[in-house]
Design goal:
Layout lengths: L3 E4 L1 H15 L3 H20 L6 E3 L2 E6 L4 E7 L3 E9 L4 H10 L2
Parallel strand pairs: 1-5
Antiparallel strand pairs: 2-3, 3-4, 4-5
Helix pairs in contact: 1-2
């Protein structure tokens, strides 16, 4: 069963920032980023438990080619992306952001 995909509004803004950063390296970089994100988001809606738990009920999916990561939780009928950021960001900052997101 495939779950619905939802985003917190902050996560959508963060994903747009990551896209803008990828575009800064050229159209080809943006296309690779978009492809990697689309594939990963499809995977987590089909296999929501496939990424490791990192903070309470939040899971992290990293994108090796770009260094980006999405943090998500699994609800009964949906995968909810709560944070999109650079995976190399300070772990304490990521934890603080996650603790403020519902």
């Amino acid at each position: 069963m495939t779950l619905r995909l939802e985003f917190l509004s902050d996560a959508l803004l963060e994903l747009d920032e990551l896209r803008a950063n990828a575009l800064g390296f050229g159209e080809a970089s943006l296309a690779k980023f978009e492809s990697e994100i689309a594939s990963a988001l499809t995977r987590i809606t089909t296999f929501p438990q496939s990424a490791p738990l990192v903070h309470r009920a939040v899971r992290r999916l990293t994108f090796p080619r770009t260094g980006a990561a999405v943090f998500y939780r699994v609800d009964q009928a949906a995968v909810v992306v709560v944070l999109a950021t650079d995976s190399r960001r300070d772990p304490d900052v990521i934890a603080a952001l996650l603790s403020t997101r519902k």
